[in-house]
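Reviewer comment 2.1 asked that we show a complete input and output for one of the modelled complexes. We chose the pyridoxal-5'-phosphate case, as it is the one discussed in the main text.
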Amino acid sequence: MVSPLMSIYPRADLAFERGEGAYLYGGDGRKYLDFGSGIAVTALGHCHPRLVEALRGQAGALWHCSNMYRIPAGERLAQRLVDRTFADSVFFANSGTEAIECGLKMVRKHHHERGQPERYRVIACQGSFHGRSLAAIAASGKEKHLQGFAPPMDGFDQVAFANLNEMRAAVTPETAAILIEPVQGEGGINPAPPDYLRGLRQIADEFGILLFLDEVQCGMGRTGKLFAYEWAGIEPDILAAAKGLGGGFPIGACLAKEGPASAMTPGSHGSTFGGNPLAMTVAGAVLDIMEADGFLENVEGMGRLLFEKLEQLVGAHPKVLSSVRGSGLMIGLECLVKNSELRDKLAENGMLVVNSGEHVIRMLPPLIIGQSHVDEAVAIIGKSCKELAVEGT
Ligand code: PLP
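Response of the prediction step:
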């Protein structure tokens, strides 16, 4: 018999009653250091007082308003994102997948409007993840996600990540865009070298195709810049954001330059809930906090500290850990044991992380952490590695 709640997640037997800052409190009465942040969502920690205040205030005024009418909080948020980034226009959705979907539609419409409808194919990368819609699973091309959902949607090609020659060779007269995560998340925390991103910009310009960045996981301050592309000194044409933008409130955003954005006209796309007053107000409060002095510097500083301490742990526990990689507070710890063993041991010792593939533990702590959280995390990881090494001998 199927369970009332559809069984599509391999869930841990843990439930939480409340959260505060970097901590979650379990129904079992235990306190957990949350270095997963609901997979990079609660970027400001749990129940940040200013987000709670913003949500409460809006909840007492207006929850939903159709996009048939103006939504001033959305107009303000769009203007702020436009002022702060490469973009000239923003579409609000409710999730990362929907932000990607808007971008993929925009890519096709852009070339269609320019009289080149034959340009519809998108080149993405192996190991990428762009969501679970039919288009998103076709984009990443991952066999496991496509299995059982044939036929895959037409129009997507995949090349090796961080290989410019392969990317260039894959461009054809049908290519419309390159879609890439500046730091692959689900694929094991793989940061794209800045030179690679600059090379992609060059290829896109040379062939007249669009550069579409998926910053659903690596955006919103996670790498120490508001968006990861800033590290490479380039600008994309389209960017998908979500997760941290709402700090835990569901939201997605597709940002675009004037060219592709102007292809989207009334009736081209839409969403009932996208851009609703609750999401717009909370995301506005998230931006207020992220734009305050010192916020991104803290992410960079804490990222560096955590990285260095994890490297020391790799040296100290060669039977369990093999390497560290990442950017800012998006860090992958490669293990020699199965990652679920280390993840479960960490949970047993009071710390939550996220698996990535079979051998990487992902650390995506809230961006508000300080040195004491880093120290606590490192102590728990060290203790867990020791226990695993003993159990393994
Ligand atoms: N793109 C990336 C890089 C992601 O990490 C995710 C989710 O993990 C998505 C897209 C899909 O976002 P959502 O689950 O909000 O639809």
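Residues 39, 95-97, 100, 129-131, 181, 185-186, 214, 216-217, 242 surround pyridoxal-5'-phosphate (CB under 6 Å). We note this here for comparison with the apo prediction described in Section 3.2.
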